[in-house]
C-alpha cells in the first residue's frame, strides 16, 4: 500500500496528484470515488465552488477525467478497468439547478448535498455512455452505501446526533458494511463488463427517474468541463 495525497476540494491538488501518479507508470484497474462532505454550512472551496458541489462532485469529475487515459490503457477485453462512484439515496430527492449549480440564489445544506449526489449519478451514466461509444474496456457504476456510522454526520443538528448515538447500533451500518457494495462493484466477477448500474446492497437498483435524462446528463457534463477547465471531448460523441 502506498499513500499519495490528494485534496478533492482543490483543483490544483488533483492535477498535482495525477502528475505524481502518472510518473509512476502504473496501470490503474480500479478507481473508487468516495470523498465527501454532508450538510456543511455555506462555504466555498479554494476554487470558489460551493463545497458540496465542488468536493463531492466536481473534484471526482476532474479526477476521473484526468485518469481516463490510464484506465483505458489498463483495461482489457476480459478484464475491464472499473470506476466506482459513491452516491447516496439522497439523490432521489435531489434537484439539479443548471442555472445555479453553486446554490447562490438560496442555500440549503440538504438541497446542496442532494444535488451533488444526483450529479454523481448523472455523471456516471453519461460517462458509461461515452466509454461504450468509444469501445473502451472501462466500466462506470454508481453505489449507494446505505446509512453508515461515520463522521459524515458531524454537521447535523445536536438532536440528530443524540438520536444517532442511541440508535446507530440498530439502524446504521458499520464502515465495513457500508463499503461492501463498493468492494463488490470493484472486484466481483458478476460485474465484469457491466456498466451504467446503480447498486445498493450488492444488487442493481433503479435510481431516480431524472437521472436517466440523457439531455440533462449531457448538459451537466458540458457545464462541468467548463467549470473545471478541461475540454469537452464528449461534444463529438452522440
UniProtKB/TrEMBL annotation:
Its EC number is 1.1.1.441. Belongs to the short-chain dehydrogenases/reductases (SDR) family. Pathway: Protein modification; protein glycosylation. This is Polyprenol dehydrogenase. Keywords: Lipid droplet, NAD, NADP, Oxidoreductase, Secreted. SUPFAM superfamilies: NAD(P)-binding Rossmann-fold domains. It catalyses: a di-trans,poly-cis-dolichol + NAD(+) = a di-trans,poly-cis-dolichal + NADH + H(+); a di-trans,poly-cis-polyprenol + NADP(+) = a di-trans,poly-cis-polyprenal + NADPH + H(+); a di-trans,poly-cis-polyprenol + NAD(+) = a di-trans,poly-cis-polyprenal + NADH + H(+); a di-trans,poly-cis-dolichol + NADP(+) = a di-trans,poly-cis-dolichal + NADPH + H(+). Its main location: other. GO terms for cellular component: extracellular region; lipid droplet. It comes from Heliornis fulica (sungrebe). It is found in: Lipid droplet; Secreted. Oxidoreductase that plays a key role in early steps of protein N-linked glycosylation by mediating two non-consecutive steps in dolichol biosynthesis. Acts both as a NAD(+)-dependent dehydrogenase and as a NADPH-dependent reductase during the conversion of polyprenol into dolichol. First catalyzes the NAD(+)-dependent dehydrogenation of polyprenol into polyprenal; polyprenal is then reduced into dolichal by SRD5A3. It then catalyzes the NADPH-dependent reduction of dolichal into dolichol. May also acts as a positive regulator of starvation-induced autophagy. The lineage of its organism: Eukaryota, Metazoa, Chordata, Craniata, Vertebrata. GO terms for molecular function: oxidoreductase activity. Gene3D superfamilies: NAD(P)-binding Rossmann-like Domain. It holds the Pfam family adh_short.
Amino acid at each position: 500500500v502506498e499513500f499519495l495525497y490528494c485534496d478533492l476540494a482543490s483543483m490544483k491538488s488533483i492535477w498535482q496528484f495525477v502528475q505524481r501518479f502518472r510518473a509512476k507508470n502504473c496501470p490503474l484497474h480500479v478507481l473508487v470515488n468516495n470523498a465527501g462532505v454532508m450538510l456543511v454550512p455555506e462555504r466555498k472551496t479554494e476554487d470558489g465552488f460551493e463545497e458540496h458541489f465542488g468536493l463531492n462532485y466536481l473534484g471526482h469529475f476532474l479526477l476521473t477525467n484526468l485518469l481516463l487515459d490510464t484506465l483505458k490503457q489498463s483495461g482489457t477485453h476480459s478484464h475491464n478497468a472499473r470506476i466506482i462512484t459513491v452516491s447516496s439515496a439522497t439523490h432521489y430527492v435531489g434537484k439539479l439547478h443548471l442555472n445555479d449549480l453553486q446554490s447562490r440564489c438560496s442555500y440549503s445544506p440538504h438541497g446542496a448535498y442532494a444535488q451533488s449526489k444526483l450529479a454523481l449519478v448523472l455523471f456516471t451514466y453519461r460517462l458509461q455512455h461515452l466509454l461504450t461509444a468509444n469501445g473502451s474496456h472501462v466500466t462506470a457504476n454508481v453505489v449507494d452505501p446505505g446509512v453508515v456510522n461515520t463522521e459524515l454526520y458531524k454537521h447535523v443538528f445536536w438532536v440528530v446526533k443524540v438520536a444517532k448515538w442511541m440508535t446507530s447500533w440498530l439502524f446504521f451500518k458499520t464502515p465495513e458494511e457500508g463499503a461492501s457494495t463498493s468492494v463488490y462493484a470493484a472486484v466481483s466477477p458478476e460485474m465484469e463488463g457491466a456498466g451504467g448500474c446503480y447498486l445498493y446492497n450488492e444488487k442493481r437498483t433503479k435510481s431516480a427517474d431524472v437521472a436517466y435524462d440523457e439531455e440533462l446528463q449531457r448538459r451537466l457534463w458540458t457545464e462541468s468541463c467548463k467549470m473545471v477547465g478541461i475540454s469537452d471531448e464528449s461534444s463529438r460523441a452522440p
